[in-house]
Amino acid sequence: MANVKELNPEESLQAAFGYRFRKVREARGLTQDELAIPMAYSSQHISAVETSRKRPTLRFARNGDRALGLTGTAEAFEREFREMETGILLEGFPEYVELEGRAVEIRVFEVGIIPGLLQTPEYARVLVDNAVHRGAITREKADERVVFLAKRQAALARDLPPMVLVVIDESCIRRTVGGAEVMDAQLQRLIEFAALPNTMLQIAPYDMGEHRTLDRPINLLTLADRSVLAYAESQTQGHLDRENASVVPLLTAYHQLQATALSQAASVDMIKQARKGTS
Known about the structure:
- The protein is an alpha/beta fold.
- The protein folds into two domains: about 15-70 and about 75-85, 434 Repressor (Amino-terminal Domain), CATH 1.10.260.40; about 95-120 and about 155-275, Endonuclease Chain A (Endonuclease, Chain A, 2-Layer Sandwich).
- It has twelve helices and six strands.
- A hairpin with a 5-residue loop joins strand 4 and strand 5 (about 230-235).
- Helix 2 (about 30-40) crosses helix 3 (about 45-50) and helix 7 packs antiparallel against helix 8 (about 140-155).
């Protein structure tokens, strides 16, 4: 009998995926050869994933779920794969990102920090490094988040890019993250974003007061079939909402927010003034 490689699931997220995949397969009394046919993968490929010599793919995870009877369950390997790819474990976020990559319109409102789609790598790195320092995430997950964010941003640079409309609270540009140099580059990135033909950037100023119609960050996607969905997060949980009864009021509130926020020209002027304070 061939030697079975001992696995350390603590080694990496990829190793943890392979370790659990082997455990589930063995619990069902299946060999790699027996699982190969229903999964449409060779036994050698399955072995390579289980021993962390080959990185799993979304197709591998989905095929494994179907063959092992885990599709749609809390134990699904597709779920674990998405968590591994994003390094972000909040419910609903992996599915949101997949839909974001196909949306024709993206609307974002953010408070306190620059939205992920507009962050520079340096700004994003400061945020995840601080999370590591606080013990909120591991260094591995921090690195994965930065890589993932770059992929997420690149996915929007397609032949027919979506319209991206962003409203940020004034706190986003007033809160210094990473020091003057990082913040100056980040503010310049906002100015460049506003100049693109498929974008709109507005600031909800402090003096808007009670007229700010949204009190928490929100993402709204319009898909090619004109359906709209919403995604919102708390500190520990995310929620993807497709129900018109709850999504339409959020879309209305977003339009009202845009109507009372600064114009893009005035917003860019405010950002330029803020940049002078970082010089």
